[in-house]
Every structure is written in structure tokens, then in C-alpha cells.
Amino acid sequence: AGVLCFFLLDMGLGAARHLLRSRSRSVTPAIAVLAIIFAVVNGTVGVLTGVLIGLDTGSIAALGILAGSASYIAAPAAIRLALPEADLGLPLAMSLAITFPFNVLVGIPIFTTLARFLS
């Protein structure tokens, strides 16, 4: 758990460095809307997939929530290894500052309701 905390701290610092270094306000309203749209679309696909494969309601909701979430740990680590020269600041800022709060406040209730409605 300690290593994970340091990794998450490093990711957060990377996102903050990118946002502070970027004088042009790289997280524009269009990018923020895109982060929310992708979360809703991916979560809906997750719910529909759960329904199609016959999962129970709770599992359908969980699959939708996971599909709608940005990958906070696995994707940045994989990209960092595969493309060390890539700047992960903007994607991390989108996932941590936009998609995560959206999913906690709005996405989880949406995907849970959709799972109950469709199952």
C-alpha cells in the first residue's frame, strides 16, 4: 500500500507540474466535456455488456462504474514504461480532476440506476 501511495503522489505531482507549466490553460472546457462524455459512454457500454452477458444487477452496476472510470493506475504506468518521453500531465489532470469527481458524484448513481432499469 505504501508503494501505491508514492506512485499516486507522483502521478498527482506530474499532473500539477503540467498544469502549472502550461500557460495556455491546457484543460479547456472542450477537453473537460470530452472527459465527461467518454466516462458516460464507456460506463453505458459497460452496463450494456453486463446485461448482455447475464450478470446480476450489482455486477452490472460495478462493470459500468469500472468502465466509466478513467484508469488511474494501470494506464499511466503502462504508458510511462512504453513511451517514457510522453507527457502524461494532461491525461492525468483530466482523469484525476474531471472524470474522477464526475464519476463519484454523478456517474455511480447513473450507472447504478441504468443497471437496475435494464436488469
Structure characterization notes:
- With 119 residues, the chain is an all-alpha fold.
- The protein has helices at 2-21, 29-52, 57-68, 74-82, 89-118.
- Helix 1 (2-21) crosses helix 5 (89-118), helix 2 (29-52) packs antiparallel against helix 3 and helix 3 (57-68) runs antiparallel to helix 5 (89-118).
- The longest helix is centred in the C-terminal third of the chain and has 30 residues, at 89-118.
- The chain is elongated, with a radius of gyration of 16 Å.
- The model has no long low-confidence stretch (mean pLDDT 85).
List the helices and strands and how they pair.
Elements: H1 2-21, H2 29-52, H3 57-68, H4 74-82, H5 89-118
Helix pairs in contact: 1-5, 2-3, 2-5, 3-5
Could you give the count of β-strands?
Answer: 0
Number of helices: 5
Derived from helix and strand composition plus strand pairing, the structural class reads mainly alpha
Instruction: Quote the average pLDDT.
Output: 85
Stretches where pLDDT is under 50 for at least 5 consecutive residues are: none
N-to-C order of helices and strands? HHHHH
Distance between the termini: 36 Å
Q: Please describe the biggest sheet, giving its number of strands, its sense, and whether it closes into a barrel.
A: none
The best one-word shape is elongated
Residues in helices, as a percent range: over 70%
Strand content: under 5%
Rg, Cα atoms, Å: 16 Å
